[in-house]
């Protein structure tokens, strides 16, 4: 029987979805890892031996050797993708990436909009063009993965339309901006395939992006992401592929984090240890990574919300960063019963263990 394993963050992102995905990839090396929301803004860290990789345009099984698949709900940026592909090749990772024809393509004009628009900066942005791409796709100026393998003249005309959409009217300026983009498009061996590709795998690992509390339907607006970060998209794909054996892996740190503006409960300064490998550090767009005590009421809310989207065979909880803070996880404060609870005690998935 085919099986799906879905990894979902219960907070504002940065919970440990990368290390959890790598843990599942290690157990199921013949799997494919599927991204079903977000895109190049992800920063999912995997460490194996002396190798470390932050996965953004590839799924978090790539360093371990598994292929990646990006669904129609994701965004891709050819320049970012090409740069990460080169990094993975140096590390002997798997650069095999299959992309749904309707995945949305981020252009340099979308990145410019994200980084310069006052409202975007106020509400919070990672500066990678995600929100602008999603918003643009509500207009007639769309660009899909399939367009990257369309006749070059057709692609360029669509890109010009997007430039005009954002107010880029200078042809010389437009050409300069697009040169790197088109060069990247030419260097990538595009594998544009629908969900039929996934039918050849017995085990599918669905890797979520960000967390339930940033979901565009359930987060505190306007400080949300332009995506469904619950299991909604993954479950719809499972139904399409007729997969009924579904395992959930809900992920939280032992403390709370939020990278960017917006509401956060229990915010306070924490004294952490063993956090030298922290990926989410200050940047010009999201600013500082914020911390707080774990809020069990918020965890219960996120679990109830996500549970409304998916019918599962097994529910598991993963608690990461247990080596960073001298606090015990209070499983009795959760209103949902889990089949297994795992703890992560280092940046390496080899140090996962079942604790309940």
Give a description of the structure.
With 356 residues, the protein is an alpha/beta fold. The protein folds into two domains: 3-73 and 196-354, Rossmann fold, CATH 3.40.50; 104-191, Orthogonal Bundle (Adenylosuccinate Synthetase, subunit A, domain 2). 28% of the residues lie in helices and 20% in strands. It is built from nine helices and 16 strands. The chain has a ten-stranded mixed sheet, covered by helices on one side. Strands 3-4 form a two-stranded antiparallel ribbon. A two-stranded parallel sheet has the order 6-8. The model has no long low-confidence stretch (mean pLDDT 93).
Please give the structural blueprint.
Layout: E1 3-9, H1 17-27, E2 32-35, E3 44-48, E4 51-55, E5 68-70, E6 75-76, H2 78-90, E7 97-99, E8 104-105, H3 108-116, H4 118-123, H5 130-136, H6 152-165, H7 171-187, E9 191-192, E10 203-207, H8 232-240, E11 245-253, E12 256-259, E13 289-292, H9 296-307, E14 314-320, E15 340-344, E16 352-354
Parallel strand pairs: 1-10, 1-11, 2-5, 2-10, 5-7, 6-8, 7-9, 11-14, 14-15
Antiparallel strand pairs: 3-4, 12-13, 15-16
Helix pairs in contact: 2-7, 3-5
The share of residues in extended strands comes to: 15-25%
Number of helices: 9
* Helix content estimate: 25-40%
Let me know the average pLDDT: 93
Output the CATH topology of the largest domain.
Rossmann fold
User: SSE order in H/E notation?
Assistant: EHEEEEEHEEHHHHHEEHEEEHEEE
What is the 3D shape? globular
Domain count, please report it.
2
- Major sheet, described briefly? 10 strands, mixed
Which structural class fits the helix and strand makeup?
Answer: alpha/beta
For the largest beta sheet, what order do the strands appear in spatially? 9-7-5-2-10-1-11-14-15-16
- Cα radius of gyration in angstroms: 20 Å
Q: Based on the structure given, which CATH architecture of the largest domain is correct?
A: 3-Layer(aba) Sandwich
In the CATH scheme, the class of the largest domain would be Alpha Beta
Distance between the termini: 27 Å
For the secondary structure, the number of strands is: 16
Low-confidence stretches: none
